Fold this protein.
Amino acid sequence: MICNMETSQKLYERAKNVLVEGVNSPSRGGEFYKPCPVFIDHGQGGKIYDVDQNEYIDLMLGFSALVLGHAHPEIITALQRAGNKGTHYAAAAEIEVKVAEKMCQLIPSAEKVRFANSGTEATMAAIRLARGYTGRRKFIKFEGQYHGWYDPFLLNCHARPTYTLGTRKDPVSIPDSSGLTPASLADTIMAPWNDIEIVEEKIKQYKGQIAAIITEPIMSNIGFIPPKPGYLKDLRQITSDNDILLIMDEVVTGFRYAPGGCQEYFEIVPDISTFGKAMGAGIPIGAVVGKNEIMEAFSWGKVLHYGTFNATRLAMEIVDTNIDVLTRDGNAGIKHLHTIGDKIIAGFKDIFEHRKVPAIVQGFGPMFQLYFTQKDSIVDYRDYCSDVDTDKYSRFAHELLKRGVYSTVSNGLHSIACIAHTEEDVAKVLTAADDAVSSL
């Protein structure tokens, strides 16, 4: 049982003097972690170690970025190789061509690639690209989906009281931040996810005005909510029929479910896709990929997309190595992610059933989340807002933390497997989970 966090507490008090809330992203701060955030000293493989020398099995993995785990030896070698030749040129280099070629081979929607520096930058560029290519301004976004902190995306991302949400057919758009202008949100059309009929109604309502529909293939900002059978294919069909671009945001799911992402797994070919997180194995990176005709709108004098740090040599070396590690030996790395994740999921389900706890586990393979709920499944944002005990989840996650399992304490995020996780790690996670459940 981890009890000593004395050094973390002291660092947190120091940090609050010089950093807003003592952290550099709100999801890491004291609003979520009690009594203080865990200050990490180092990571190795599937584990992290804090400044008080406590060891944790890491199921958060840098908010799902560290698909290979911590300090993978081939990643370290790639970092050294890049450093020895210079980390960044802001000029053309062969490595960016090599990585783009690999992505075009792996990703079904990729005929051309444009690199960015984060998932948020990639989705920002994707929306601008869709607007520039189609000449239209509006786009459909789904309740509960997070596409980064760009102003037009920041509506109905996080849990709200259901009485404020309006009806499913006419949802109330609620900004997730102050500092947003009405004009920045005026062209965002809100719709519930997993409901193709309402999407059809929105398309008819705004006929000829919609540039794109942007969607995650799996909702991953409200834990883990999979698409209903056929839903993604219906989205693909309805966008094609109405001359609307389909943007698939694979910032979370890319380079995890299959070499070509969820679009390969679900057999969907969107017009534009975005990537980040696991793509960089811990190094900031983003990418927009898509059909050649659409991507060519990024050409000079058309849709502007600059970036001093686009395709840095450092990032490109890491992405190149990461792809090789994940896909070698018949995609053995990705298969391992599925094996480990599925075993943890099955174990959680067994624990809840044995303990007679009203909870469910949603997910498959590399990503999953659990919900304390009386429902059999959580299918959209409104289910999450009305039928999930997020406070109980937070208490459970803190109990896991005390027992050496580092997972998200926010029910709105999800847990992750990496290729460094072992069968022994799975057993330790499940032992900790069983003990944590009994403590509740």
Observations:
- The longest helix spans residues 313-355.
- The CA atoms of residues 74 and 376 lie 42 Å apart.
- The chain has 14 helices and 14 strands.
- The chain has a mean pLDDT of 95.
